[in-house]
Design a protein that fits this description.
Elements lengths: L8 H21 L4 E11 L2 E8 L6 E5 L4 E7 L1 E3 L13 E10 L2 E8 L3 E3 L3 E3 L7 E9 L2 H7 L7 H4 L22 E6 L16 H19 L3 E4 L9 H10 L4 E8 L9 E6 L6 H10 L2 H4 L14 H25 L5 E9 L11 E8 L3 H7 L2 H19 L1 H6 L1
Length: 410
Amino acid sequence: MRPFRPTDSKVIFWLGLLLVILAFAPLAQAEPIAIAQSVHLNVSGDATQFELELDRDIEFSVFALADPYRVIIDLPEIDFQIPQVAGPLDNVMILAYRFGLFSAGKSRIVIDTVGPVAIADPVIHRPAGERPARLVVELSPISRELFLRDFALNGTSQLAALAPKAARTVTPSPEPRKVNAKPVIVIDPGHGGIDPGAISKSGVQEKYVVLEFAKHLASRLRSSGAFKVELTRDSDVFVRLDRRRNIAHQYQADLFLSIHADSITTSGVRGATVYTVSDKASDELAAALAAKENRADIIAGVQLEDVSDEVSDILIELARRDTRNRSLDFANFLVSEMSSKIKLNSNPHRSASFVVLKSADVPSVLIELGYLSNRKDTDALRSKSWQTKASSSIISAMERYFGPRVAKNN
């Protein structure tokens, strides 16, 4: 019997074949994304069934939250091939529902209910013949006391126990930045994932408009070579309000820009507006907008937690005053630059108590690019020409704000 030789052609062939099989095995095992094909609300007596048709059966969990009353369905990532529903529904139990990507690999459906509800055992029916898989959640009215005891997230029911826990992200302490380093800009495209934001009459969703503009602005800032730029999201995913602020802290941001595109009932109102934070709103419109934007976490089915009042610490309060003054400085530069390049609102600088702007040490402004309730604004926001002019005005304002520090890095 001759000795084994690793150079034998047969050995090399079989080893090569084994390596190819092992290399492609993970691809063969990858689970394709399930498709949501339609939604039906089936009413029977005082109960309503929320029925989601899928192309296969999947794992899911259901829980509820109070104040406001919501039922949450968490699923693996879903391709929702169904339209977003705007406005209140004609249903005695369900006010509205929305859906989208909640985090990487996870989708969420949030159902707003008229009041407290009992949740019958949620089930998913396997495909049968020509009938697709169906996820069915049945809701019926119940007293608040029973809802809080048996169904709400902090209750004792098995449904509440199924609620997924948010992962805690631990980030290392950032290294101290060099003196005169490039200014760090954190751009925050509002909304995302399950939270579409404002929706125009033609179906244009705020979350896509602001993400497109944020990427355009980030690209131009990076190309200038004078700034370091980070985004709070670069895809259609939901990000909590506190997480958006934390990202700015994580990157030691010198400036935080939250980008939005509002919608109001008066279609004639249009133009860009710059907002800064204040404890008292500058006007009713600013107060209403802040209240709407501050509900982003509720819209996505996030349980709000009590946060300690930082104002109790006098050192933080002093830092906050300085930060607000610097935010005002940048806002003034921004309004000045925008006024010569794009259409501004009749009252272009407003203030209100925006949660996302409440950072003690990062100058922050919220830019409403325009109103999706106005057709001219909607068309402009999606125009490359308008995006170029708007981003140019923001970059010019930054160059004035940072002054020699930017010039040194060019």
